Amino acid sequence: MFRDSLRLLGSAVLILTACGGAPAPMDDTPPTTVGQSILTTGVVKIVAEDEGGGFRPAPPMGSTCPVEAARYTLSLATRQLDWTRCVGDNVTPYKQIPGSRTLTDAEAATIRTAAAAIKVVKNDGACIADATLLTLTLTTATKEQKYLDQPNYCNRPGSTLVPRADIQGLLDKLNVLAK
Q1: Distance of alpha carbon 139 from alpha carbon 45, whole angstroms
Q2: What gap in Å lies between CA 123 and CA 67, rounded to an integer?
Q3: How far apart are CA 147 and CA 31, in angstroms?
């Protein structure tokens, strides 16, 4: 009888715990709702990219990439950071230079914290055509979600938006770690 009472009490606690509080975020679906953080526990990979572009002088003949283009890919499970940066000096042709390294726990935590602070925003009607295009792509076990910097919405209507400064901040942190 005592065991049955404990079992019932345990079931009641489990039910109450499961029903209480706000629902947990869907780990396998990167958020697209305004105000939500883009980083959930289900995210396994972050890709931050400056696609280059904007109004600037053309790179020298023979260049294979746009000025300032860079792509950083971080596997959260292994802390493996891979990158490709467009490097040149306005005299010699620009070319992509790849690199790779494993981040320390502290470095990976810095990137996680920066990504977790990024929230989905609504289109504010701004449009810039003279700046580089910044994107973030988050991947879970089964899904991928691409986010675009807010003022570039007119270049890719229908995109899920995040603040440009937040993507740039993440790119800056990744650039420092790409050594």
Answers
A1: 5
A2: 27
A3: 10
